[in-house]
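Reopening this one. Same input as before:
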Amino acid sequence: MSQHRPLGPRQSQSPTQTQSQRLSLNGGLITSLGVLRADAGGLTRFLEEEAARNPHLRLEPPPAPALGEWLPRWASVLPGLGDGGRAGGTAVEHAAAAGPSLMVHVISAIESMFRLPHDRQIALRLAESLEPSGWLGQSPAQIAQEIGATLAEVEQVLTRLQHIEPAGLFARNLSDCLALQLTEAGLMDAGFAVILENLDLLARGDLARLARMCRQTEAELAQRFRVIRGLNPKPGTQFAAFGADMQREPDLVARPEGGGGWSVALNHSALPSLQVVKSATGSAAALRAARALGRMVEARNATLLRVGREVLQHQQAALATGAGGLAPLTMAEVAARLNLSESTISRVVAGASVDTPFGTWWLRRLFSGRIGDKDGDGPTASAAALRDRLTRLIAGEDRSAPLSDASLAVALSASGPAIARRTVAKYREMLDIAPAHRRKRRP
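Same output, byte for byte:
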């Protein structure tokens, strides 16, 4: 019989060493995947934790935006930056009523806030005047005259409605919208009041005059500009088909260029700068880990930019006209064009957002399946564009005689692929829109 010999030192260490290497590789892979799918806020927090542990890592705060460096979502609301119109930026959006998702949110709040029938009637009429931006489309005086209430009664109800989150809903105008957000944040003071009364000067870059009016230095004014830049001039847009919450800086910025094209760039104000330095207090292993993390962040940023440019190149119609212009696009198609795996595309768009003239959008929501004749010459449309059209049809319907699912299917099919009633019902439920009998409002 062969005798079992005890393992020698070299033999006994080999399995342990192999397991340790495997665990290290798995840990590095997990970190890489986490970095790839992190949004700017999550990645910033992770880098801060790593820099606190690893002396070879140094974080520099993101560069502050220069005075006058507005995000695209401001172009349509600030005079001199865009069309100077009301919130929205296109005639289509000006004419549209607030979408059902916003209305569901607002009416749910109204039902819990107002017990008296008269106050509730005023509140519902104010809600019906909301635009997609979240601003009021009519003045309180017009609404008071229309429903036979006093202006004081309407103003009192409006003040209560302006406490509905997100801050800025039911604003009378841009200044009012920003003031509501600054007040909620505890930042509103005399200096901001002067700026909000003179937003045209801020938009034109007449900082010397504005600084004199505020009795502040231009450096102090720059700090206030950065606060205002981070606010959301159109808080209602986060309830749109692919609107993003505006509690953080967007990852990408899409700006219109001459000739109808679009430029897409990383938002450098969103992420701190990561530097790898040799420290006497750090080990060689920590230095290798720091360098590996630096490469991961660079790869994440490069991949996000490549994917973002490819997606938005395909979705230029949506950038120009809104959600209704969204074309069919799948992650598999983008992966094939960029020679990446579909899982990589899924991870990098998971929490990323892009700032556009229509507001800030989740990048992952710009993917949409194709509806209609996929093989022949029949009409096709993206599912997301159809949901946007459905939202607009319901937003513009007669509240005393709302459209049934069958009627909505006929209307949607008139200018695109044939849509079944059950498809309308499915999309309506996805959008959290009630059926016709529950949407009915008595005159």
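So the earlier flakiness isn't reproducible anymore. For the record, The CA atoms of residues 67 and 222 lie 6 Å apart.
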